[in-house]
Design a protein that fits this description.
alpha+beta; Jelly Rolls; Arc Repressor Mutant, subunit A; 2 domains; five-stranded mixed beta sheet; 9 helices; 9 strands; RmlC-like_jellyroll; transcription; DNA-binding; transcription regulation; HTH_AraC
């Protein structure tokens, strides 16, 4: 396989991750990768080109692409664009799973496409403005979007080849999901391997092959990303943040933060405060 696995961490306080596409400035290519979450790319300005299991899907303004869990995809963004991305963890759909914990959605256009676009635009705008009670409005729009997905876009019949493909990547997705939910604990490779019935060496090879990284680096990346959220959204000290997210001390958190984001946590906080003044 050799494709990169992406771990989805929701926005703080919400059961999803919503953000502006990082390739908004153009000259951007995201190589083949996969994740357990459902993902929607909604294009409002400019164009994007998706490749899903080698099939090409060009998008223009007013169109979106709906990506299934464990679906290998890449995206090409040669020109500037305004695209909003919504990533929805699979457990949101647990009451609608088919066999093997699967749920699949169609890529084909539907009459409800415009409503999906409107809901995503509204959610993104409200999260940016943060007016009083915005959380309830965003949640309301999100649940309406989920209703449309499960009633209008869900595939009722899943083909045998789709099941086989899903099983290949589902094992590691379940493990990375467990890590995401328990990352503050002492999660050694040996501990996680035992929980899922693998030998440590087999689990290590699984990460190298499917996630293209080693277990320790993956775990540290999860901890740093959650730490980044707390750094950006609270006034907690850097030492407190380090301890809240599984690091032994502030020095260890600072080292991993700089490695991932190219800046010290203290410097990031200074820039954030300057931007608000």
């Amino acid at each position: 396989m050799g494709y990169e696995h992406e771990l989805i961490i929701p926005n703080e306080g919400f059961p999803f991750k919503l953000f502006r596409f990082e390739g908004k400035d153009g000259h951007y290519v995201r190589e083949k990768h996969w994740h357990r979450s459902i993902e929607i790319f909604a294009v409002f300005e400019g164009t994007l080109t998706f490749f899903i299991n080698e099939e090409k899907y060009p998008l223009k303004p007013g169109e979106f692409i709906l990506l299934n869990s464990n679906e290998i995809h890449s995206v090409v963004s040669p020109l500037p664009n305004h695209t909003i991305v919504l990533q929805i963890p699979m457990n949101v759909f647990r009451n609608y799973y088919a066999q093997d914990g699967m749920i699949l959605f169609t890529h084909s256009p539907r009459r409800q496409d415009q409503k999906i676009m409107e809901l995503m635009e509204s959610m993104y705008r409200d999260i940016q403005i943060k007016e009083t009670g915005y959380e309830w409005k965003v949640q309301s729009d999100f649940f309406m979007l989920i209703y449309l997905l499960v009633t209008k876009y869900r595939k009722q019949e899943i083909l045998p080849e789709e099941i086989r493909h899903y099983r290949k990547l589902n094992r590691l997705s379940m493990i990375t999901g467990y890590i995401r939910d328990n990352y503050t604990k002492d999660l050694s490779l040996e501990t996680v391997a035992e929980i899922f019935g693998y030998s440590p060496s087999y689990l290590s090879r699984m990460f190298q092959k499917y996630a293209r990284t080693n277990y320790k680096t993956f775990l540290q990346d999860v901890r740093v990303e959650y730490g980044f959220q707390e750094l950006a959204n609270t006034d907690h000290t850097i030492g407190e943040i380090a301890m809240n997210h599984g690091f032994p001390n502030q020095k260890a958190f600072t080292r991993e933060f700089r490695k991932k984001y190219g800046i010290l946590p203290s410097e990031y906080r200074k820039r954030q405060k300057s931007a608000m003044d």
